[in-house]
Write a structure and sequence with these properties.
The protein is about 85% helix and about 0% strand. With about 80 residues, the chain is mainly α.
């Protein structure tokens, strides 16, 4: 059940990141999939930096969204290069 929540939060984070990062993108499906990867990246980054966004759904969504924004930024930068 925890894995399902992780996927759902990653999808929501991908959508939010796509809204924040306007411009040429990967479409809704691409942004959603990158959001799931971004959730992993966000969790890793926050753990490495010793940061916490609090517990619960809102904290997880914040961390995942920040990770998704980072991933979208990096992928778009690589796409342009």
């Amino acid at each position: 059940m925890e894995f399902l929540w992780f996927i759902l939060i990653g999808l929501a984070a991908g959508w939010l990141a796509g809204q924040f990062m306007r411009g040429g993108g990967f479409g809704v499906v691409g942004d959603l999939l990158l959001g799931v990867v971004g959730a992993l990246v966000g969790g890793f980054l926050f753990r490495q930096l010793g940061l916490s966004a609090g517990g619960g759904l809102i904290g997880a969504l914040i961390v995942a969204t920040i990770g998704a924004v980072v991933v979208l930024f990096l992928v778009r930068a690589l796409k342009r290069a």
